[in-house]
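Q: Here's a chain of 256 amino acids. Please give me its 3D structure as tokens.
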Amino acid sequence: MASSASEPTGAAPRPVIGLTTYLEQTKSGVWDVPAAFLPKVYFDAVARGGGLAVLIPPQPIDAAGADAILDGLDGLIITGGKDVDSRRYGQQPHPTNDEPRLDRDALEDALLQRAIARDIPFLGICRGMQVLNTTLGGTLIQHLPDAIGSTRYNAGGGVFTPNPAVTVPGTRTAALLGDAVTVQSYHHQALDEVAPGLTVSARGDDGVIQAVDVDALTFGVAVQWHPEESAAEDARLFAALVEAAHEYRQHRKARA
């Protein structure tokens, strides 16, 4: 589905994709306040895929609140960000872990549970894949250098590193991306015990899990890398999400 800056007269509205956001202390002009934000590359990538992006700030919600948010969406992206609180998967934090963002953990957990129950198209990015796994009962490797002996996935300083991801034949991820893809990495954690209901769909050449499919969803993919960083050259994941979101919207209208 091609993107456009505006909708032609009579054209179907573009699918609405919700993206979760950071909540951090932020400076802007004379202000230094907690603020929700998301790097522009994320919503640019959604536009390249043919969708309309709306941002979801961290806030207290229950299942009913999650449903109220999802009622306005055709697809959901859980974005990158700080480490998931290790206590959510029964472990004490590694010394290198970020200070947990408990409000964001809770919001994304609630959204994911209801999105899966409603079969809303879903894409998880970096932290998004880790939230997915822990929400469904899996665990994380808290510091990859301890496991693989290198910092190949996190050079630090905001510099993304290229790494190979080899897909698993027969998976949704393989159908979308082919046999292998070079990805942009910035993470020091990864999936360890994979939650029930997830199928590993890509690994690095060192065995680190790079993508999973969500078995219960008509369209559900999560990747450990940052596809938004290379979406100007390869927006396949975003285009596939938007296409699934379009179909979801059509089915929802038919049921109404």
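Q: Can you summarize the key feature?
A: DSSP finds seven helices and 13 strands in the chain.
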